[in-house]
Input
Amino acid sequence: MHLHDNLQVCLLALASRYPESLIENNSDVIGAHASYPGCRTTQETIIWLQRTEPALLKEKASLVIDEQRHVIYLTDRNDQTPAYRIHYRGKMSAHTETNNNLPAET
Output
């Protein structure tokens, strides 16, 4: 799954396709003000960003879920280092599933 749109659309697509997913942010990419400790659901992430950094939701983003990566990039900030890593608490499709049902870390 590859989607190139703004961050909010990418998060909503993730929530729709993989509702059990958890998101971990990278404060080095998104900044300390928009970051939070640990993992959150997609909906919690959207609510957090609406409160703390609403402009971030409008930034260009790429959602990538494939055999090697389960991430969201903020392409204008850093297209090599993920802004968010996606963790899944259930089963992903067979081509992205690992032995313990969690996406491989990148």
